[in-house]
Design a protein that fits this description.
The protein is an alpha/beta fold and 243 residues long. It has helices at 2-8, 10-16, 35-52, 72-87, 102-106, 115-120, 150-153, 156-168, 184-189, 206-218, 237-240, and strands at residues 59-65, 91-96, 130-131, 137-140, 171-176, 194-200, 223-229. The protein has eleven helices and seven strands.
Amino acid sequence: MSKIYEALQHAYMQKKGKEEAPPLPVPFASSKQPLMDLGEEMLGLYKIIDALLPHTKSRVIQFIGSREGEGTSTIVREFARVSSQQIGDCVLLLDGDRHQPTQGYFFDKQDQYGWIEALKKEEEIDGALYQIGQSKLFMSPSCNSSVSTPEIFNSPTFSGFCQKLKTDFDLVLIDSAPLTTSPDGLAIASRVDGIVIVVEAEGTRWQTVRKVKDSLTRVGGNVLGVVLNKRRFYIPQSIYKLL
């Protein structure tokens, strides 16, 4: 676990020019941890991202894992909820996984017109945005197309697309497909303000995570850090907080 932090969480130290970096988000578990605690962890994550990007008022943040099953979609969705409900940001959640459009299914929008289709057709995205109830959270589904999309994400059109979204939303979150299933995440990486890597604690080897981080950095991505998900607590969690 500590090796993952050494490999990935030095971003804060480099940006702040300090000898020791303050800890990034306390590891949390989406399925093992009470919702209240998970919300607290999301608030902590929000504050850290805010500190890492102090001069960026509106932000596009990409969440990505190295493989399927790490819980990336759950983490980004909860982060979106907390950011909109508790912080008060106007948030847009983009489902970026064409193969497993989890967010589309969760919000029952999987068959609706999505943002990737709007981007392909160079149309306004307004018709692909869906407000969640009366909240400040909006989402846009992916598409089920098997056609490769990196060339779209690498085009100037996508950069302009992101800039326009930042004028309408405080926070744009992209739920990317794992790097092992799609190259879309790498194509997006250099166009966003920051990247959060989601790792299944005790399930993903730190060498694999390091490889993901290096791949994202190599293409110009700004890796902010790593979030450990599905962490197992072998002693009561309250005791962990005292350690």
